[in-house]
Design brief:
The structure holds 2 protein chains of 2 kinds. By secondary structure, chain A is mainly alpha-helical. Chain A folds into 2 domains: 2-79; 90-167. Chain A is 70% helix and 0% strand. The longest helix of chain A has 23 residues, at 57-79. By secondary structure, chain B is mainly alpha-helical. Chain B has 17 helices and 2 strands. Chain B has helices spanning 8-26, 32-43, 48-73, 82-130, 135-152, 157-171, 197-214, 234-256, 261-276, 288-312, 318-329, 336-341, 343-374, 379-398, 401-419, 425-447, 459-486, and strands spanning 174-175, 182-183. Chain B has a two-stranded antiparallel sheet with strand order 1-2. In chain B, helix 3 packs antiparallel against helix 10, helix 4 (82-130) packs across helix 8 and helix 4 packs antiparallel against helix 13. The longest helix of chain B is centred in the N-terminal third of the chain and has 49 residues, at 82-130. Chain B is globular, with a radius of gyration of 22 Å. The relative contact order of chain B is 0.19. Classes of the chains: A mainly alpha, B mainly alpha. The interface between A and B is large, with 66 and 60 residues.
Chain lengths: 168, 487
Amino acid sequence: MKNVQKQKRANKSLPFFFRDEFKVSLVIIIISTALLITTFTFDIVPPILNRGIQPATFPKALLVLIIVMTLLIYYLATKNPWKVEKKLPKSFYLTLLSFLIFLVISMTLDFFLAISALSIFVSYCWGEKRIFYLLLVGIIFPVIVFIFFETILGLRFPPGIITNIYYS
Amino acid sequence: MMAPLFSSKLLLVLFFGTLFGLILGVLPGLGPTTGGALILPFTMTLDPLSAIVLLTSIYCAGTYGGAITAVLINTPGTPAAAATCLDGYPLAQKGEAGRALGMATVSSTVGGIFSVIILVFFAPILAQLAYEFGQPEYFALAIFGLTMLASIGEGSPIKNLIAGAFGILISTVGKDFMTSIDRFTFGINELTEGIGFIPVVVGLFAMSEMLTQSTLINQIFNRIALKAIKLPTKEDYKKTWKTILRSSGIGSFIGVLPAEGGTVASLIGYSEAKRFSKNPEEFGKGSIEGIAGAEAANNAATGGAMVPTLALGIPGSATTAVILTGLIIHGVRPGPDLFREQPDFLYGIFGAMLIANILFFIFGFFGAKIFARITLVPNKILWPMIFAVSVCGTYSLNQSIIDVWIMLFFGVLGFFMRRYGFSVVPVIIGLILGELVEGTLRQSLVIFDGNWFMFLTRPIALTFFILSLIALAFPLIRSKKLKRKYD
């Protein structure tokens, strides 16, 4: 409890644009406004086909509600600031990077290879240095999962350099 | 009642589901919601009853499994076991881990069975009442559900409402189901069918948890060795039977309300146990009543949460939202017609939940020592494996790589939501209720010829709207009361 109070006081001492509540509220409002603008591009249904309200009306109402409530949480946070969150460690950013690596490899090379690369990368970044365990999470386990999904669920994975060899 | 379950296949499914649920419950960060979402694609190979039996047994056992980790490593295996840590771990530190787990197992089983009885009696009554519901009543009910979620869920009610509204917004992506107009598709063909439930659930729960675990890799757990689990003594039963019954009632009631099910139930069950206790000073230091109060309540919430799920098609918790998805993808439409047309199916589910509660008692009693060992699997091995299963499971439903991207996007989003105090559960409930909210609103407006005030002429709808307003005002009243108390 004392720690939370301390973190809150630390937050209060920051300029408003550095505070989490400002940054979070701003991001929500920017995205919601962009989506709200998008709703004006939705097709309009002629009155005879219209079912109660126009297709854009419901999302518009939701987005306005989200913006209003976000302003409200920001207003409340000016009175009762959020606590300062700890800085994220390097391992978090590396895991996030692994998601990107997965996306790039799965789109360009191979789906299986992407899973394998991510598993080895994450396991290594989280501190696993033993080769056997890296092979276990990066190759043995994905192969088992791959075969399981392929045979039990009859799943066909997207084509790629390794998947093509397996299917041929 | 149990007749449909007397087949070797169903019993095997039940056995496997309970075992799998326990493992999921024991592993911190996983749980019945994520596990249910991951196993959903596999249920496609099963018949509808087996699929739902599998999901419900995972739900019951997973909720209990969290207690093992809570007692032994002071980390709740599931959010619903958070209150169990408060007394379970201190008692284990005193060298009574076996006694703490014994009480957790017994009270979870009693709570679970109590809630199944509630389910058997109340779900048909609620379904009968639902015959009176038209589109306006369903709209008002869904709004009530969402406001309840905001008001009694964890964290800030406004943040919960934002998350719920965001969940409903996600449900509007794709072709409008009434007019076939594209909404938020941004020219991506795959989005015209909308955003699937599974990529969102797996992203918000499993992937965001993976990112959370990446921030905790240096955390060291002090694991307490477990010699053997002990059944509570006569003295323990004498001390706790009232608490167990009270928490079972509280848990079942909270479960029926659309909220974060077991998590809220266990916190209320715990605080009520403390309020009624003759020794409140023992709470937080290893009170056996504290463990009983929290565990009976969180398991009682499982049966309670199934009541609105089966009777109305409104999920009572995130895991029941997964079960509801399972029902829908297997072509079973929950609601009053289900009770009239497929009673065997329903009694199969009731019976399965009853047996699952007995099975996890047996597994927990004889296998807690083995399950406790699962916590020794290091995260650096476990989470890459979960990633592989998550990716393949998400891809398998529509064989679409876009679903995998959506899953990763929601993983990152879920991480930041949780970091800044936004619960992800309202997003899930909002997503599943979104179509119902919009559909019933629009159909009601057609019936009312566009006159919004006509909602107020429907007594049941009006009652739900008034209850929604009360639900919204409740956190305000509660915080003012607390402020006055501390002043």
